[in-house]
Amino acid sequence: MENSQSAGPSGIEIGLYTFGDLSSDPLTGIGTNTQKRLQEIISMAKLADEAGLDVFGVGEHHRLDYAVSATPIVLSAIAQHTKNIRLTSATTVLSTVDPVRLFEDYATLDILSNGRAEIIAGRGAFIESFPLFGYDLNDYDKLFGENIELFLQLNKNEKISWQGTFRSRLNEAEIAPRPTQKELPIWVGVGGTPESAARAGRLGTGIALAILGGPPARFKPLVDIYRKAALNAGHHLANLKVAVTGHGYFARTFEQAKDEFFPYYSNYWKYINAQRGMGSRMSRDDFEQMASPETGLFVGSSQQIIEKILHQHELFGHQRFMAQVDIGGLPLKKIIESIERLATEIAPVVRRATNK
């Protein structure tokens, strides 16, 4: 990946990602379904592309309360409605997918999108894909380690011979098709574990930090670990990339943003906690603390979001910022308003400030 450590000539990239959750609107009780949600996702990506945002990501879940399990198919549909925006998974659960099949899918997406495909790979915050596809959860980390190393070899070679532990060996196998890009950009998603950051550094991939709350400075050691591991492995800092991802909602004022977003954010954490067997609900006081100017939750006026992004850029020197703005049953109208504010009020200022 030929990208500088600090922001490029146009400043950092600004984008969006979605998990496609199927939550009902907590204020109206109006629900949704997979078909409607997928159409909304395509509409979001089309708007983001037309508004000049840089990247759009789609997550992967294998549950009835999410709309997206076949991420490359959804991204291929988006590719037909967009022209310039980069298209990435967010994230691919690499532990439970065959790396050869994954490479073929995203190489095909890259061809269909004229060279816009990327992958953010992770071990998986949800574990339903392990029994679904016949993998042992005890091999959680070993599967990811083997699969990402194989994927990186597939990315570089048209023919490959390889032998590992968890899949059949490859003997001069032809890896087709080849992407339009020389190589598919790949990032490792990191939630907070130093081991994941160090592995991304050793492999020389990008790193995508999920900063969902709390003081952002607590993630600085992970970026330091990542860059140190990369240098120790012989990679050049100029080729490394850091992305920050997080939840966001943008409005005219801080109070408006909080008042409008709280019911949906509380709803989001209600069903996330229920999935994890927890019964706790978010109070307004909890939300006020999470949304304060010192935290990593991107909720507020455009100026406040600009200040948060630039503060984090001072910490991390990252090349990309991606916001998830469609969670908890938010109606499409509100999602569109956040996307437009991000594209027209936030992104231009951030790009100018990070244009070095």
Automatic annotation (TrEMBL):
Q: Under the GO molecular function aspect, what terms does this record hold?
A: monooxygenase activity; oxidoreductase activity, acting on paired donors, with incorporation or reduction of molecular oxygen
Q: Which InterPro entries does this entry report, sorted A to Z?
A: Bact_Lucif_Oxidored, Luciferase-like_dom, Luciferase-like_sf
Organism, by scientific name, is: Jeotgalibacillus soli
**Where does the record place the Luciferase-like domain?**
17-318
State the protein's name.
Luciferase
Q: Which Pfam families does the record match to this protein?
A: Bac_luciferase
GO cellular component, as recorded: cytosol
Query: What are the entry keywords?
Result: Monooxygenase, Oxidoreductase
